[in-house]
Amino acid sequence: MSKRSSSIAAPQVEPPKKQRLVDRESEAQQVIAAESTVDETPKAKVLIPTEAERAKIRKFPLLAFTAPYEGGEFYYERECYDEYYHLVSKELVSGATKGPGGLVGRDCVTVSGTPGIGKSVFYAYFFERYRKEHPNTWIIAVAFQQNQVNKLSVAAVGKEPVYYGSDQASRQLLQEASLEAVQWKETEEEGVTDKRLLFLCDGSPDMTRRQCVVFTDPNKRWRKVSRKLYCDYYMPLWTLDELQEAATLLNYPISDDLIKARFEKFGGVARECLSLDPVVSKKAERDLTKQMNAIFDPNVLRKLLLEHETSHYLLHYVPEADRAFTVPQLASEFVEEKLQERMLTKSYEQREDLRNLIESWEGP
């Protein structure tokens, strides 16, 4: 698959002296067909994983999640998880915030990226690994919905995590758990000198806490907060090889051909590419087609790109080398091809407007 760019390659022609008029009604009839021709019937797989492959499969810990995970009780550990774990852990220990005893780490680190790539799965990985490597850290994990406490997990030092579902979790319960953790932290214990309290947030929280890691989709409200902290990291899209290996090792009844077809349509987004429900992928496919058919001028595209539910069908976030900044990329070969077709019907000025709009996109 060729590497896509945010720059759309317009036809190599000089701007005409007089632009033709486009018949909107006739153009609207050029509907993009997006029905998949790949057989989506579940297919059994024979799996005899190697020891190294088995190590990539992990069981989810008892943890508060914003949305239920539809893929079962196990998840696939991506190669990038180790890199991002170290990036975030380093910020928590040796960031720029100075306290009485020296550098005490960042107040808040944000892990973000294109919706559907599994930031909540990385949240589970981070929770489990950090708890193992920092046994004197009390972890409070909170799932937020619409900035409100939805679920809660409290992992006190030396104890098994305690989970509170949506019928129990509340802001008051979070405050009580926080107070208990602070009291524990301030109590002196013989031989224990590195007591810490860490908040993990699945979804953008109502406020920042000292110290916390936020795992969230990009959104305007939280971006206003995180930009002031200068500590955002963006996770990468999935590769086709990763998606196919994950499906094989997790024993998902999805063929490599089907994953490839979905990848070419949706790009490196696991939510659509690894969906176990064909209805979900079909709905996403039709939604994508609807958005592509709606693009007739820059004003329509601008509206689509500013809406959270539609923008990420068209453009994805690609992290730069430092992982702290991103560049926009067309979501897939399908999107690139169909947008090119749309641009062929536009005037030179309209093509430039569309290109500039895409290149300046920062997210909804």
From TrEMBL:
Residues 15-26 have a biased composition (Basic and acidic residues). Residues 1-26 are annotated as: Disordered. InterPro entries: Crinkler_effector. This is NB-ARC domain-containing protein. It comes from Phytophthora rubi.
